[in-house]
Amino acid sequence: xxxxxxxxxxxxxxxxxxxxATLDETGFRTLAVxxxxxxxxxxxxxxxxxxxxxxxxxxxxNGEELPKDEERLHLYRKSIGTVFQAYNLFPHLTALENIxxxxxKVQRLAEAAARETAFSLLERFGxxxxxGSRPAELSGGEQQRVAIVRAIAIRPRFLLFDEPTSALDxxxxxxxxxxxxxxxxxxxxxxxxxxxxxxxxxxADRCIFMAQNRLVExxxxxxxxxxxxxxxxxxxxxxVLKY
Amino acid sequence: xxxxxxxxxxxxxxxxSWGIVLFLLAAVFTFAFSNIEYGWHWNAIAGYRDKFLKGxxxxxxxxGASLVMSLLIGFGTAxxxxxxxxxxxxxxxxxxxxxxxxxxxxxxxxxxxxxxDAFGVENRYLVGTLILxxxxxxxxxxxxxxxxxxxSSSQLDSCRAVGLSRIQTYRHVIVPxxxxxxxxxxxxxxxxxxxDSSLLSVIAVNEFTLSAQEINSYTYSTLESYIPLALGYLxxxxxxxxxxxxxxxxxxxxx
Lengths: 243, 255
Fold this sequence. Notes:
The complex is a heterodimer of chains A (243) and B (255).
Chain A: E1 2-12, E2 15-26, E3 30-34, H1 41-48, E4 56-61, E5 64-65, H2 70-78, E6 81-83, H3 95-106, H4 111-124, H5 140-153, E7 159-162, H6 170-185, E8 190-193, H7 197-203, E9 206-211, E10 214-219, H8 221-226, H9 231-242
Parallel strand pairs in A: 3-8, 3-9, 6-7, 7-8
Antiparallel strand pairs in A: 1-2, 1-4, 4-5, 9-10
Helix pairs in contact in A: 3-4, 3-5, 4-5, 5-6
Chain B: H1 11-36, H2 42-46, H3 49-81, H4 86-101, H5 104-118, H6 124-149, H7 153-162, H8 166-196, H9 208-219, H10 222-251
Helix pairs in contact in B: 3-4, 3-6, 3-8, 3-9, 4-6, 5-6, 6-8, 8-10, 9-10
């Protein structure tokens, strides 16, 4: 996978959320975005997901520039998978219906084909018993796993995760991370915003460190962990690796 | 709502409690009516049964049509109030405030004798239904608006992320959740419409209340005319309220 950022900036009113981000990463499978809260990670992910549009600069993914008009952005979003921190699922639909809705209404699959896809994925990830349950009846970990299944059911070009486990307790975190790990070993392209440094180190081949609404450092994970090039990163690593 | 773990209420307890309530109610009314020493003439109104029934059916028809129309008006107004087009948004806000802030009686008079007259609409049943729908639509739009706004922005993000269009988002995500939420207040609104429709008697729409008024003036039997009127309205509003509660139970899910 290939990700290029050229002077990408985004502000919300007076508040600068992302300042002049430039990046050229080629040939990664899994890219981890790490850094302290409020450092611009989620802003970057929302731009990559086509949910927000940068004020200036451009984003090029796999050689294709992200559009800025809503109509073409909509087409772009249909082709990728995005999983948020929490509350991904529609509360009035069962796990199965949550997966079927984008398949039948957005991807225009026939009902039978959509059901087949949904059931085979639910079975593969051990979620078959939960197929008929509403989100409120599922644990947080199960909800996230269903959300991930919903995202991959459409055969996305790549997957984006925005802190997929930060709302979960350790046990549920483990089950969600195992699933993401499995997706990686299938050879899917992933971009993951995460607080979980250990997990990032395990799955990601490339890593972006963001702080103070800037891209501070990029590199392969072992490298930047061993030899942080900036005081910001070494301070961050000291803090998170302490416990 | 009984809290979880509360002892279930036995059928006997239910029957007994209702017995007490109804007995007390009956006692109060018996005492009150015995005090006025009223000479009952139920025979006098017996011949007007058909007229009662016709009025009752007319009230039901007017209210039903108004409910459907006020839902459409309410939904349109709620969308207009969220619109990016400012004049549309302000017009919707003004409409809601005017309809909610003025008496229905004045609206009926003004609309029927001035506006409808100017536009050459003479059918008082049509005008009556229209006024009632406009009046109720203002309330319904506020219910719908709060229903729409109760849907979290993270859900709307999810809708965009999976690629639902705006219309699909409304159709598959917002409206189904909103309907569950507004059903209880909406059925209360239907009961209100049924009662409010009685005011249409002032423009001589032949509904239930006007029938009772006319029967009263033919027979001079005031209570005999108006007690069936009260019961007739209760027959409509009571099942609505029970129905809404059963729907509420069926639709309940935690968020």
